[in-house]
Amino acid sequence: MAVLMNPGDPNYAAAVQAAKKRAADRIQRVSDLKLQLYNVLTPDQKSQLSRSIANWKAKGQPAPANR
């Protein structure tokens, strides 16, 4: 992690690439989990979720999962 604070470090480029990979992997894991959860919702629950998201957006608030 300290390497990422020093662009002059010879290992800086490799550390940046490793950080990008970890971030991408985390995003993929979270996305996969959200999809799995969504797929077990009933049609009514999916509709309620869509309505809740629309309400949060209308109020100018992020959805709870994005806070």
Outline the secondary-structure elements:
Blueprint (H helix, E strand, L loop, with lengths): L11 H28 L3 H16 L9
Main features:
single chain, 67 residues, mainly alpha, 2 helices, 66% helix, elongated
What is the general shape? Answer: elongated
Structural domains: how many: 1
- Range of helix content: 55-70%
**Unreliable segments of 5+ consecutive residues:** none
Compute the separation of the termini in Å: 25 Å
Helix/strand-derived class? mainly alpha
Strand count: 0
Biggest β-sheet, characterized? none
SSE order, as H and E?
Answer: HH
Mean pLDDT: 93
Strand content: under 5%
Q: What is Rg? A: 19 Å
Query: What is the count of helical runs?
Result: 2
What does this structure look like?
- The protein has 67 residues and is mainly α.
- The protein has one domain (7-62).
- 66% of the residues lie in helices and 0% in strands.
- It contains two helices and no strands.
- The longest helix has 28 residues, at 12-39.
- The two termini are 25 Å apart.
- The model has no long low-confidence stretch (mean pLDDT 93).
